[in-house]
Amino acid sequence: MYLKSSLWLPNDFMVDPVLLALKFTQLAITKGVKFIEDCCLEEILTEKQRIINVMYLLIVQKWSWARELGFQTSPSVRIPTQACEYICLKTKPMANFPTIHNPEEPIFSNGVPDAFHFSLLPDNWDDFYWILSNTMKRFPILAESECKTLITGADSFTPDGRLIMNESAEVSYLFNE
């Protein structure tokens, strides 16, 4: 399938979810919030559709295992995400050139191991080449760009490709991020 049209909106933008989460974390810490990281959360205790026990507020990060954790909650919490391989080519800045995001070309995998924990996958230029070569046909100026980094990792995406940042409808004080 070839791109039939495109739209450039000079004032449009996307938020970097990592930087946004870091900023929210910094602001929360200044308000006295304590974060527990690098741990395995196996169960969310609820009563009357509200989190109980030690935690007053739980933020479930949008990683591959968040969806499965939501299903284990009572009542079940729907976290509409799908884990997949993610490849990002970063170039030096180019004047008047948009960010290219093509959600029409999904890549499926068998999931991400539990111990993956924000690791990167090995770069595979051979697999990425067909994407890059077809993109350069659509945007010839890319041939003049200076490549900085190819980043290959695992990420989790929503059906519309947007962030989830809200309290769940099913359980009070359970937030998706």
Automatic annotation (TrEMBL):
The lineage of its organism: Eukaryota, Metazoa, Spiralia, Gnathifera, Rotifera. This is Uncharacterized protein.
